[in-house]
Amino acid sequence: MWDLILELTRNTKLSDIHMQAGAKLAYREYGEIVQLEQVVSSEEMRTFLQEELSEVEFVRFVETKDYDFAAEQDGLRFRINAFQQNGQIALVFRRIDSHIPSFDDLNLPAYIRNVPTLETGLVLVTGPTGSGKSTTLASIIDVINSTQKRHVITIEDPVEFKHVSKSCIVSQREVGRDTKSFASALRASLREDPDVILVGELRDLETIQLALTAAETGHLVFGTLHTNNAPSTITRIIDVFPPAQQEQIRSQLASSLRCVLTQRLIKRIDIAGRVAAFELMICNTAIRNLVRENKVFQIPNIMQTARGEGMIVMENYMKTLSMEKKISVSDV
After folding, report:
1. Helix or strand or coil: residue 144?
2. Last residue of some domain: 96, 129, 157?
3. Range of the domain at 21
4. I need a surface site. Which of 17, 84, 186, 218 has the fewest CB within 10 A?
5. What is the pLDDT of residues 259-317, one digit of tens each?
């Protein structure tokens, strides 16, 4: 089955491949699904999984009905989710570019260039699935790896971009393969002499609490959430905790949060492809006070008036892209 995957990947600009037993093979290109006439059988997908997974991993998939892992073939790397639908195996492949893009490649906001020099604090990258959060974080980690002398620990499910140690020591841990969970790896990381910690996803109360503690105790922590703007990101974090703890969490977040970068990928109308749209909240004194005082709803007003400090509002960014004829007015 690898021959089919590699041929399709090399001949298109796909981001994902979709396989369902007895259904047409499909892929996503520039954000849209393209279906082919070719059909992949359940037996082919089952054989593929048994070849790529260890016996223990395959048993875990059979028991849980879904499983995440990464695989590489002929220099092409994929994040793969195996799951069951209608009683049959299905697979989704997410292509991972082996080349870690630069800040310029990604056209990241100017403030993000300062992030690798931060000593401590929490930096969050948010957005929907497939919006490039992992790519942005990989770019930041690569700059740190090239310019700092630190110990960087990444905790991912699965590991996507592989980092070779440069000026830094980089330790990459994969949930399921190298550690039981995000929380257990994050707890252990505090005893592993880290300077920088990347948490692939802030999923639950314990992981969020540990990330906040790490950021407060002298570490630079990166994390992702599936939220669409800075205020909803802050609300999501606080609402994970029981009411009795929320005041304390607001205080921790106000003191440790450095910025929230939200991103979306939008189909271009000028050329084939997609363009990134950004929102950036930088935690200045006014933002910290609003978080501490539970006035998150006022944050958008501060962001509008503090654009001179580098803050970006998504709506304004998308209007600019529309004026530049890069995206459709209907997408704004």
Report:
1. helix
2. 96
3. 2-96
4. 218
5. 999 999 999 999 988 999 999 999 999 999 999 999 999 999 999 999 999 999 999 99
Closest C-alpha among 323, 73, 141, 126 to residue 232: 126
Check which CATH number belongs to the domain holding 15 and give it. 3.30.450.90
* Whole-prediction pTM: 0.89
Please check whether residues 115 and 262 belong to one and the same domain. yes
- Cβ 121 vs Cβ 97: under 8 Å: no
Angle at 199 between CA 196 and CA 204, to 5 degrees: 140
Reply yes or no: is the peptide bond before residue 116 cis, omega within 30 of 0. no
CATH number at residue 240: 3.40.50.300
Total of domains in the chain: 2
What's the N-to-C CA distance of the chain in angstroms? Answer: 40
Q: Are residues 141 and 61 in the same domain?
A: no
Phi, psi for 207 (deg, rounded to 5): -65, -45
Same domain, 192 and 120: yes
Whole-number Å distance between alpha carbons of 189 and 199: 11
Are residues 161 and 62 located together in one domain of the fold? no
- Separation CA 213–CA 190 (nearest Å): 10
Phi, psi of 159, rounded to the nearest 5 degrees: -65, 130
Q: What are the tokens at 298?
A: 């006022």
Q: What whole-number distance in Å separates Cα of residue 122 and Cα of residue 120?
A: 7
Return d(Cα 150, Cα 193) in angstroms, integer: 9
Residue finishing a domain among 96, 120, 139? 96
**Tokens of residue 168, six digits:** 């830094």
C-alpha distances in Å from residue 327, one per residue of 13, 60, 132, 318: 19, 43, 18, 8
> Residue 3 pLDDT > 90, yes or no?
yes
